[in-house]
Amino acid sequence: MSKPTLLVLAAGMGSRYGGLKQMDPMGPNGETILDYSVFDAIRAGFGKVVFVIREDFAEAFKEGVGARFSDRIEIDYAFQKLDDLPEGFSLPADREKPWGTAHAVRAAREVINEPFAVVNADDFYGANAYQTAADFLKTLPNDSTNYAIVGYYLVNTLSDHGGVNRGICTANEDGLLTNVEEVIDISRKEGGVISGTDLSDQAREVNEQDIVSMNFWCFSPAYFEQTEKHFADFLAEHLNTPKSECYIPTVVDDFVAKQEATCKVLPTSSNWFGVTYPDDKPMVVEAIAGLITKEEYPSSLT
After folding, report:
1. pLDDT at 18
2. Domain residue spans in the chain?
């Protein structure tokens, strides 16, 4: 069975990515979050990395980012284009905003032929998360519609500098995802209580051991064909809504509700790090230094 592929959603990085958080040095030798992501993927057994980017900064990205990894793992690219739509649909003249994460994944349909994981370019997911995903994907048949999400304990994803938005995952007794509830502005309050608000603007208390989605998904190639109808249905309803977006969780929820697929929740012990707020960067730098001290990562990735 072939090695799984890592699909990195990087189309939002922009042509001047050098000053963006995705390319901000976080490690002791200037390593970025992407450096750690690729390092973790390689040692977990992934065989290829595909970056979803925009065509307008393709050459700059390949020279500044992709070239750093090309001697360590196979690298490929897919372009998220506004006019890359299913047959029968045309790009509205006033459309400027990308079509969302589900559309970004769809962009890679011509370059991925094996089970794959999907991650964001600017998130630090941790070694255990990549190993958990790889172990699942290595046994997943190409035509399977039994997908998975790597789920994090809420306490391992909070910020000390403000509220965060998280999708709280509910699973049945078989560990299969049944619902993802969006809760916004989650933070630890006085007395240690963790709470936020639901989409009805009602207070929602959550548990630090709740499993949350950080958009780390595991799919087979069957996902590409299966999602085509969903995206076409989305466009039929929202094509002329300029800011409408089609998201991966919405697609998966639809598959699960219609019993067209299952999604196993794979808990990970990893901590998730992200620079949601400017003050988060020192915390991320310190956390990575701590992982190096524990010998979970080498002091230099090269």
Report:
1. 43
2. 5-293
